[in-house]
Amino acid sequence: MQKPHVMAAALSILLFTACAPMNKAQMGGAGGAAAGAIAGQAIGHNTGATLIGAAVGGMLGYMVGNEMDKFDQQQLTRAYETAPSGQPVAWTNPDNHNQYQVIPQPAYQGPNNQTCRKAEIVAVIDGKTERTHSNACRNAYGQWQLQN
Question: What is the pLDDT of residue 18?
Fold first, then answer.
């Protein structure tokens, strides 16, 4: 069971962010931090793990929200949908010239019997290489949604 302070922190993040207008990066960061905090607590069962989960989730959410536009998100979805496990899928955004490479892993049964896949994402943004891991699960409509 989640500890009350973790749930309160996650709820506070969601409530505060719902009151203020935010850009895509801020929305991604807030959502990622909340999900990361919950995941960190579930995995580590302590405040340190919760804080680490919030930091990692917030960073991933901010990166995705800030840098990935609709074209990039479509390419990421295509990688989750069609790429063989372990085979990289790469593209360059025609508008901002950011480069991405996604290496999806085998599908697995996630929560609520959802089909999920993990992936490593390597992004070159403004000449800087960033490496992260993502997790996506199919929603009830069959669409891939980033989980954190």
Answer: 42
